[in-house]
Design brief:
By secondary structure, the protein is α+β, with helices and mostly antiparallel strands. The longest helix has 19 residues. Strands 11, 12, 13, 14, 15 and 16 form a six-stranded antiparallel beta sheet that branches. It folds into three domains: 237 residues, FAD/NAD(P)-binding domain (3-Layer(bba) Sandwich); 110 residues, Alpha-Beta Plaits (2-Layer Sandwich); 52 residues, no CATH class. Helices cover 34% and strands 21% of the residues. Strand 12 and strand 13 form a beta hairpin. The protein contains 13 helices and 19 strands.
């Protein structure tokens, strides 16, 4: 089949590679020209999260190894670090890697893949003939296609009018991050580390280990907390991280050199949108939406690429099975996503809503549904028997429902007075005071 994939991010590239290997003639279209041949960072256009921290869960490696093992090999050869935290079983190998290293490695595989062509351009619209997709218009020129896969990301609007409206909206958070590299002679973060997160009064922080001796430090705030938004400025950011024990050691510029400016992440959403129109009919047979074009979750949790790869692996199998019946594939894929992807969306909507209230100083509502992060905190802190469920959930190898049997036990712990541990660190107001002191001294 002639197939066009819209978007050359990780999900689009993976889609194109596995479809080409299944016998399709594939064209991947993206506005970005690619990284070129020069070494160094890649200024990816239109992808807000590109230079922000990433950490790839074990599920990413599992999909690659099962369907395209050379992709895993390419990412590791490019510098990605397989990371197995102490005490974890071998199948839970994560990946410490910057997004641009990860994406460049996959793109290099795509660039030499037979039956696959990378094309730079803007996809203006989808074309259809006799009730099914027939191609796309790229910069005024039609590219014929029997299948079109939209992997254009969270900002993509291709053929929006064909689908039922999305569920969800803003997740209520914004963040800033900065990337650092260990100076010569300085020990970087361990190569078997997990991201380290802490929830404080009024804000949250996460420290991300990466490849090549790099790390990223992230500060998350409520989107409506405009006072903490000044952390987007270098002096304010540096004053803030200097007050935070977790981040202070790893952002000390005597030991770690900043290699980016302070990067802003905003307009973050939890959204879900299926494959069908408002009448429950295949929106356009032969047209499929995958990755962030279908489901977005708060990117601080790093779920997007895992969910997208899982969707594509399922879709490619269905396309092969259904052959010339794309309407049937749309219905099957829609139903599969409702069962396997939509629960992650609902899980994060609830998680974020409860986390926002906790950032505002409210206690956990013991009588309401217990959010997933609190169940996992209980498993980690006081109830190791629950890790049999919490571990696979955190690795995204088991769905959110795997935690349901442990909700009542977590409620009992909360009623007894237990709360997720609060690490030492400044309050929101103390962070503001530190930033204001730096501002006043300038």
């Amino acid at each position: 089949m002639r197939t066009v994939v819209v978007g050359a991010g990780p999900i689009g590239l993976y889609s194109g590679i596995v479809l080409a290997r299944a016998g399709h003639d594939v064209t991947i279209v993206d506005r970005d020209a690619g990284p070129g041949t020069a070494a160094g960072a890649w200024e990816r256009k239109g992808v807000m999260q590109f230079m922000h921290p990433h950490y790839f869960r074990a599920f990413v490696g599992m999909v690659f190894k099962e369907t395209a093992p050379d992709l895993w090999d390419a990412v590791v050869a490019a510098g990605g670090i397989p990371a197995l935290p102490d005490g974890m079983p071998e199948f839970l190998v994560n990946l410490q890697c910057r997004r641009w290293v990860f994406e460049r490695a996959i793109r290099n595989v795509a660039a030499v893949e037979p039956r696959l062509r990378l094309r730079r351009g803007h996809v203006e619209r989808v074309e259809q003939h006799r009730g099914r997709v027939s191609g796309v218009v790229v910069d005024g020129h039609t590219v014929d296609a029997d299948l079109v896969i939209d992997a254009s990301g969270r900002n993509g609007k291709l053929a929006d009018e064909l689908r039922a409206p999305a569920e969800g909206g803003s997740c209520g958070f914004a963040y800033v991050s900065r990337m650092y590299k260990a100076r010569p002679g300085v020990e970087p973060l361990p190569t078997n580390a997990l991201p380290r997160g802490e929830l404080h009064e009024g804000y949250q922080i996460i420290l991300f280990p990466q490849d090549a001796g790099t790390l990223s430090a992230l500060i998350i705030r409520r989107a409506d907390d405009h006072e903490l938004a000044v952390t987007r400025h270098v002096a304010a950011y540096e004053a803030a991280v200097a007050t935070m024990p977790l981040l202070r050691e790893w952002t000390d510029q005597e030991r770690f050199a900043p290699i980016t400016d302070v990067l802003v992440g905003g307009h973050l959403t939890n959204t879900y949108r299926g494959q069908l129109d408002e009448n429950g009919v295949a929106a356009l047979p032969g047209m499929y939406w995958v990755g962030d074009s279908m489901c977005t979750t708060n990117p601080a949790a790093g779920r997007g690429i895992s969910l997208g790869l899982r969707q594509v692996a399922a879709l490619v199998s269905m396309i092969a099975e259904d052959g010339a019946d794309p309407a049937s594939t749309s219905l099957r894929f829609h139903a599969w996503c409702e069962e396997n992807i939509e629960p992650w969306f609902h899980d994060h909507v609830y998680w974020d809503a409860t986390l926002l209230r906790r950032l505002a100083g409210e206690d956990i509502d013991v009588e309401a549904r217990i959010p997933s992060d609190v169940i996992c905190a209980a498993a980690t802190d006081v109830e190791p028997s629950m890790m049999a469920a919490a571990g696979p959930y955190m690795a995204m190898m088991a769905p959110p429902s795997v935690l349901t049997p442990f909700e009542e036990r977590t409620r009992e712990l909360l009623r007894s007075g237990w709360r997720p541990p609060k690490p030492a660190g400044p309050s929101r107001d103390e962070v503001l005071d530190a930033m204001q002191a730096v501002s006043a001294a300038r």
